[in-house]
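Reminder: ligand-aware prediction takes two inputs, not one.
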Amino acid sequence: MSSPISLTEHILDQQRLHPDATGEFSTIMTQIVLGGKMIAQDLRQAGLLDILGSTGDVNIQGEEVQRLDQRANDTFVQVFESSKIVRTVISEEMEEPYTVIPAERTGKYAVFFDPLDGSSNIDVNAPLGAIFSIHRLLPSSSGKENSLYLKPGVEQVAGGYILFGTSTILVYTCGDGVHQFTLNPGIGEFLLSASNITMPSRGKIYSVNEGNRQKWSNEMRNYIAHLQESDVATGRPYSLRYTGCLVADVHRVLLKGGLYLYPGEVMKPEGKLRLMYEAAPLTFVIEQAGGIGSTGFERIRNIQPKAPHQRVPLVIGSREDVELAETFLKPKIE
Ligand code: AHG
Ligand code: MN
Ligand code: MN
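Here is what comes back for the chain with AHG:
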């Protein structure tokens, strides 16, 4: 049996592959791991502590802020504040980019995150997640303008997520494969549980909030109807699975194949999910495993954000499944 490899060791091993690395990136990953462990601990005892329910506030997305959303956000901000390396964070729960290090020229990195994904699952003990995207900032860049931080997904240094499910796992990529770590609660360490994950080129499961069907375009309805048709040769009908937690649904897609969709709607073409801290980092992971993340029309990672909380339609998963979805969703050139 091979000896266990902790996430800390793995990050340091990766760092050794890059002789010019200063260790700063490794420190950020260590801070994310610490935040993840703290949030996992909160979630494990959520029903026993007075931390469930709403704060009474509504966030920039117009959504009710749960007390655990706020707590998870504060946890990540605190760990980055102590790192002295992250200059700025963009979080789902904060209206503006937040300058962690006021001295503008220090801190080479920006981290974009969704501190708690799938908040509607909090009260029912269903899976939750956290998503992160790490970017390097230009050493010469100074100032506080949002434009400095509006980086497209192709420029990510790392992207990944934590899934608080039956176990707590962390999945990430630095552009050098997708690696998964499982938290051993006894020793408080994330241990390597899968490396260089590659996903099936096609699956048998689709994941979508089908309650929104009446709001979709005809093209989207036709695609889902296609998946529901019976055809033994192409493995249809597909099964439907939907947890209400993007991280959990995308993790299933990573391991089993198939696709997740949160499309635009006729009255809301931008969809629901956020580009910078949901769609782009998850797409980095899925692409590294051999899959695709698309709006249905274009590659998610190529999109230049115009605002920190920009929304984007998302079609993400196995290569063949997403390619077929695109043939339905892309406007036909007559
Ligand atoms: P968040 O809790 O960070 O706001 O994200 C919720 C997202 C995502 O996790 C999930 O897939 C989707 O919203 C569910 O939305 P619907 O309830 O509209 O299906
Ligand atoms: Mn989310
Ligand atoms: Mn969230």
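The chain is about 30% helix and 25% strand. Residues 63, 92, 114, 117-119, 209, 244-246, 272 surround AHG (ligand 1) (CB under 6 Å). We will return to this case in the review session.
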